[in-house]
Automatic annotation (TrEMBL), chain A:
One of its GO terms (molecular function) is magnesium ion binding. Keywords: Aminoacyl-tRNA synthetase, ATP-binding, Cytoplasm, Ligase, Magnesium, Metal-binding, Nucleotide-binding, Protein biosynthesis. GO terms for cellular component: phenylalanine-tRNA ligase complex. It is found in: Cytoplasm. The keyword rRNA-binding does not apply. This is Phenylalanine--tRNA ligase beta subunit. Pfam families: B3_4, B5, PhetRS_B1, tRNA_synthFbeta. Its cofactor is Mg(2+). Tetramer of two alpha and two beta subunits. It comes from Penicillium egyptiacum. The keyword ATP-binding applies. It catalyses: tRNA(Phe) + L-phenylalanine + ATP = L-phenylalanyl-tRNA(Phe) + AMP + diphosphate + H(+). SMART domains: B3_4 (SM00873), B5 (SM00874). Belongs to the phenylalanyl-tRNA synthetase beta subunit family. Type 2 subfamily.
Automatic annotation (TrEMBL), chain B:
Its cofactor is Mg(2+). It comes from the Eukaryota. Keywords: Aminoacyl-tRNA synthetase, ATP-binding, Cytoplasm, Ligase, Magnesium, Metal-binding, Nucleotide-binding, Protein biosynthesis. GO terms for molecular function: ATP binding; metal ion binding; phenylalanine-tRNA ligase activity; tRNA binding. It catalyses: tRNA(Phe) + L-phenylalanine + ATP = L-phenylalanyl-tRNA(Phe) + AMP + diphosphate + H(+). Its EC number is 6.1.1.20. This is Phenylalanine--tRNA ligase alpha subunit. Residues 223-505 form the Aminoacyl-transfer RNA synthetases class-II family profile domain. Residues 278-300 are annotated as: Disordered. Tetramer of two alpha and two beta subunits. The lineage of its organism: Eukaryota, Fungi, Dikarya, Ascomycota, Pezizomycotina. It comes from Penicillium egyptiacum. PROSITE patterns: AA_TRNA_LIGASE_II. It is found in: Cytoplasm.
Length: 593, 512
């Protein structure tokens, strides 16, 4: 969730009163934003010899792009408090509409563009900083680090339309980037910014493309090389009065949202507040010729009965409309249906997708904590544990009662821990492997519980011996026959660490658990009547030769090998840095389902 | 021998009821030995005693020598007197020893016992009184010396020292007897068989020490908390979901939950993707991930997975079910990527889709491991447990969710809740649940909840008026708050201290 810093004094001035930190926290809480920090009593940084004034750091829900700047927070809180109405945003009708002409080649790299002009805007230090910060927040969040959308802003008085949006080979694009003195072409620019702290991370978006997107004015002055950087020529400053906003994108919907946010938030500073000069996009090749921004309100319908049912209220249509006003909607009861209200969704509220979003805003305006409490009907549901968990609990409790301690290691482990260190081969068809782990600790989903047990012993060498530990949990295997190409399997494993090998001890634990699962011991070859098990000497490189056994069960007439136990091979101990002998037991408990 | 001493003390007391003093009765026995014998007797109430502490004067080695053989000056006087015609000064050390000669000659002059005659020493008296020897003899006998000036003088001459002496004033105890019978350490089968228990003296039990440690196995603390949560869910009519499936698809983990494909949660930074196997199949009927599913999970009518898939695509791409959708080109490939589940809500989705075969009220829960590609620190691990609950019913209200949460958390001992509007892609309304923590004296976020979005439910084929609550919290966080564990690695994973596991008390969420 994005966090926005706003000047405390300026915000309270906008809200028309002072708030204590607690009062403001309460206001945020009710509205659905979160006061993270009030820096009044903290060490604030000193910028240009002056200490930063107290800031409020506010956490914003990820879908409320209209709250990503000071202007939006102040406006929406004022509307929520009933101090201000929603502004009427208007497009002006210029004598000659500015144009951006789109060339077809842009479809190869970044197909969509939109524009808008803020005419006669008055910046001051704070407004200017907020204008820059909003672009940054939009780039970081909705625009997914500029990959989907990027914004360029220009001093319109330094350039001349009509503008063109083109895609050209990097070598053919030459200009002086923002705040530089030296002209460079597209390739040079990539090298120049390679190590740049802020811009370096965006280069990959276009770097390897044969063509780069670029916006020119009618004199072939480069306005910007989206999504990397603007030209120095048209840069805006505190004194700029006419701002051209151009936005390029891969995603049309997000392009539209970004444009709406930029103009609705900052048109309040134009000479005639809340007016925006549109820009015509000429894009015949993909049928995207249109006038931007589109700030028309969308009309949505919401059902009174749905809202009342979900909220557990019985509000009249008029009451609902009044509540919605606090959330920046204009709403009117429908004239044709008593159960419908027509809700005007302003351009600022891109988060509204369904009437459930409107219903939620009614609940917020009413106050979540004031809603009538109810207890949902007990509709005759029956409690029951997952059968495999119930079985696991039997094994867990019996093993603990037998004097073993339960541990809970991680499910992810390194490839070596799962295979090589246990003297096991990876046949490539066994383990689920991760594509993007941050560390070597997390390379595969374990196929055995042993690595976790052995690591637990390794980290607990200060503990007295013998250590007797166990775990009952899932491992996972590749299984190409299934939709998800893998399956879990519930295992039980135990490890004994001490001055003797403990081979007979884990063998005894096996016998005990089998007895508790009503499975009788029979020597191999004997016939049993009920469920039974026997063990057979096993040659397995994980174990010390001659001191390992496979575990065979016959359950419901079906024969199965469900696991093994033995003294671990000394080479395994060495890998896991264990000084004393270890005997382990591991089996699949699903056989007992 | 110590045991002899106990009998000696009992003997010494036998004569009368008058108290005896240990330093008089056993002057040569070290007081520590006396004390341990007395303690043994006292513990059986055979004697009572009080400790007397007094300052005593002792003789140094040199002081003892003088007490026995006289002072240096007396020795010098004796030899000078013996030499009838005077003693050559230079002969003196040869006769009395170097040390006696040096100190004794000076002192004898000072006391006027001898005088110098050229190179000869002559006696000035016929006899002398050796005060030093007499004082030291008196000290040896009484261990006291009253004259402070003499004490200082003798101390300066390093002939005496000062020390503390412990003595004990002993009287008979209520269970006094002449004989100290050997104590039995424990009641034995033989004692019961031969009747000797009747006269046996059992060694008194030390009621101030702990008993013998009991060897015990134990369950993991986090699983103990998990069991408490499970019990709360069972109390409230919930059925446990089959969460034994770590690997999910983009479809089940995200798309079906109406999480758009560009959502940051789907970044490589946040989600573990699977490189092998690489691609899933589109959703289809698979063998259930539990061998014997409850009867109602054997779907009442066949589920149309293709329809579900198409609905999900449409609701993202163009909107459906009254939603305008996210309006972006939805990618089937993205949906078929395999991931480690980032939440167990993927399983809730699976269960709710099953429910669409026969929509009816249902309550599901699960507590199981989820995976996030987080950088590991004190509060983050790449794995943790998610506690999740789902209630599906007709006519559910938001107030019902709040009311339910109040009951649910009250069972964990959290009685003061408040709810903050929040954002979550798959629930609307979404509420963050804050609980007031008395210990910390502040509101703490304890969970997330909401009503699942119609885009998610109606895509499954669930009817519009069936509403579904969902809520979740991590198992680790409330456990850490409850037991003041500051680092999650001390709670989950192989670095957890076994002592912590073994010594952690039983969990009683409603009480602790």
């Amino acid at each position: 969730m994005p966090t926005i810093s706003v000047d405390k004094a300026a915000l309270f001035k906008e809200l028309g009163r002072e708030y204590t930190t607690e009062e403001f926290d309460e206001l945020c809480f009710e509205f659905g934003i979160e006061l993270d920090e009030d820096t009044t009593n903290s060490d604030r940084p000193i910028v240009d010899g002056k200490q930063e004034p107290p800031q409020l750091k506010i956490e914003i829900p990820a879908n409320r792009y209209d709250l990503l700047c000071f202007e939006g927070i102040a406006l929406m809180l004022n509307i929520f408090l009933g101090r201000k109405p929603l502004p009427e945003y208007k497009l002006t009708q210029p004598a000659r509409m500015e144009q951006i002409i789109v060339k077809e080649d842009t479809t190869k790299i970044r197909p969509y563009v939109a524009g808008a002009i803020l005419r006669n805007i008055q910046f001051d230090q704070a407004r200017y900083a907020s204008f820059i910060a909003l672009q940054d927040k939009l780039h970081q969040n909705l625009a997914r680090q500029r990959t989907l959308v990027s914004i360029g802003t220009h001093d319109l008085d330094t350039v001349k339309g009509p503008f063109t949006y083109e895609a050209l080979p990097p070598k053919d694009i030459k200009f002086t980037p923002l705040n530089q003195t030296q002209e460079m072409d597209g390739e040079e620019l990539m090298n120049f910014y390679e190590k740049h702290q802020q811009l370096g991370k965006y280069l990959h978006i276009i770097r390897d493309s044969p063509v780069y997107p670029v916006i020119y004015d009618s004199d072939r002055t480069v306005c910007s090389l989206p999504p990397i950087i603007n030209g120095d020529h048209s840069k805006i400053s505190l004194n700029t009065t006419n701002v051209l906003i151009e936005i390029t994108a891969l995603d049309k919907t997000k392009l539209d949202i970004v444009n709406k946010m930029m103009v609705t938030m900052f048109s309040q500073y134009t000479l005639e507040p809340f007016t925006i000069e549109p820009v015509q996009i000429v894009s015949e090749h993909n049928n995207e010729t249109r006038v931007t921004p589109d700030i028309a309100h969308r009309t949505a319908q919401a059902e009174v009965s749905y809202i009342n049912q979900c909220c557990g209220l019985s509000l009249s249509p008029a009451e609902i409309c009044t509540l919605l006003k606090k959330m920046a909607f204009r709403a009117q009861p429908s004239t044709t249906s008593v159960d419908v209200i027509n809700v005007d969704i302003p351009p600022t509220r891109a988060d509204v997708l369904h009437q459930c979003d409107i219903m939620e805003d009614v609940a917020i305006a009413y106050g979540f904590n004031s809603l009538p409490r109810a207890f949902p009907n007990i509709s005759g549901t029956v409690a029951q544990p997952l059968p495999i968990n119930k079985l696991s609990d039997i094994v867990r409790v019996e093993t603990a009662m037998a004097g073993w301690s339960e541990v809970l290691p991680l499910i992810l482990c390194s490839h070596d821990e799962n295979f090589g260190w246990l003297n096991r081969e990876d046949d490539g068809n066994t383990a689920v492997k991760l594509a993007n782990p941050k560390t070597l600790e997390f390379q595969v989903v374990r196929t055995s519980l042993l690595p976790g047990l052995l690591k637990t012993i390794r980290e607990n060498k200060h503990h007295s011996v013998p250590m007797k530990i166990f775990e009952v949990s899932d491992v996972a295997f590749k299984d190409l026959s299934l939709e998800r190409k893998s399956r879990n399997e519930r295992h039980f494993a135990a490890a004994f660490y001490g001055k003797t090998s403990g081979f007979e001890v884990v063998h005894g634990l096996l016998d005990r658990v089998m007895a508790m699962l009503k499975t009788d011991f029979f020597a191999e070859g004997e016939t049993a009547t009920g469920n039974s098990y026997y063990i057979r000497e096993l040659d397995d490189p994980t174990y010390f030769p001659g001191h390992a056994a496979s575990i065979h069960v016959c359950i419901g007439g079906k024969h199965k090998v469900i696991g093994s136990f033995g003294i671990l091979h000394p080479t395994v101990l060495e890998k896991y840095e264990l000084k004393y002998p270890v005997s382990t037991l591991e089996l699949n408990v699903e056989a007992f389902m | 021998m110590a045991s002899d001493l106990t009998n000696q003390i009992l003997d010494a007391l036998s004569a009368s009821d008058a108290p005896i003093l240990s330093n008089e009765a056993f002057p040569s026995t070290p007081s520590l030995n006396v004390k341990s014998a007395l303690d043994r007797l006292e513990s059986r109430q055979m004697v009572q005693y009080e400790t007397l502490e007094k300052e005593i004067v002792t003789l140094t080695a040199e002081g003892q020598e003088i007490a026995a053989n006289g002072s240096h000056e007396a020795k010098v006087f004796a030899v000078v007197l013996a030499a009838m015609d005077g003693l050559k000064i230079s002969d003196l050390p040869g006769i009395v020893g170097k040390e006696n000669a040096k100190v004794g000659q000076g002192n004898a002059f000072k006391r006027g016992w001898i005088k110098k005659d050229n190179d000869l020493l002559r006696a000035s008296a016929d006899s002398i009184v050796d005060e030093t020897q007499q004082q030291l003899l008196a000290v040896q006998k009484t261990k006291t010396l009253d004259d402070k000036k003499v004490v200082a003088d003798l101390k300066r001459r390093k002939l005496i020292g000062l020390a503390k002496e412990l003595a004990f004033k002993i009287i008979k105890g209520p269970k006094y007897a002449r004989e100290f019978v050997k104590e039995q350490t424990d009641l034995t089968p033989e004692m019961i068989a031969n009747g000797s228990w009747k006269t046996a003296h059992l060694k008194p039990y030390n009621f101030n020490a702990k008993g013998a440690p009991t060897p015990s196995g134990t369950l993991h603390p986090l699983n103990k908390v998990r069991q408490e949560f499970r019990n709360i869910f069972f109390d409230m009519g919930f059925e446990e979901m089959p969460t034994n499936r770590f690997v999910e698809t983009g479809f089940w983990n995200f798309d079906a939950l109406f999480v758009p494909q560009q959502h940051p949660a789907r970044d490589l930074q946040d989600t573990f993707y699977i490189s092998d196997p690489l691609v899933a199949d589109p959703p289809r009927e698979d063998p259930p991930n539990e061998p014997n599913p409850p009867a109602h999970l054997k779907a009442d009518k066949p589920l149309d997975y293709k329809k579900y898939w198409d609905n999900v695509r449409e609701v993202h791409e163009h909107g459906k079910f009254g939603s305008i959708g996210y309006r972006y080109p939805w990618s089937a490939d993205e949906s078929l990527r395999l991931v480690l589940r980032t939440h167990t809500t993927s399983i809730s989705t699976y269960m709710l889709h099953k429910l669409a075969a026969n929509p009816r009220p249902a309550r599901f829960f699960s507590i199981d491991r989820v995976f996030r590609n987080e950088s590991v620190d004190a509060t983050h691990l790449a794995e943790f447990h998610q506690v999740e609950g789902v209630i599906a019913d007709f006519g559910l209200t938001l107030g019902g969710l709040i009311g339910f949460m109040e009951v649910f958390f009250a069972k964990m001992g959290i009685h003061k809740l408040r709810f903050k509007p929040a954002y979550n892609p798959y629930t609307e309304p979404s509420m963050e649940i804050f609980g007031y923590h008395d210990g910390l004296g502040k509101w703490v976020e304890i969970g997330n909840s909401g009503m699942f979005r119609p885009e998610m439910l109606e895509s499954m084929g669930l009817p519009k008026d069936l509403r579904v609550y969902g809520w979740g919290l991590s198992l680790e966080r409330p456990t850490m708050i409850k037991y003041a564990v500051s680092n999650i690695r001390e709670l989950l994973g192989h670095k957890v201290d076994l002592h912590f596991i073994e010594s952690n008390p039983a969990v009683r969420l409603e009480k602790d």
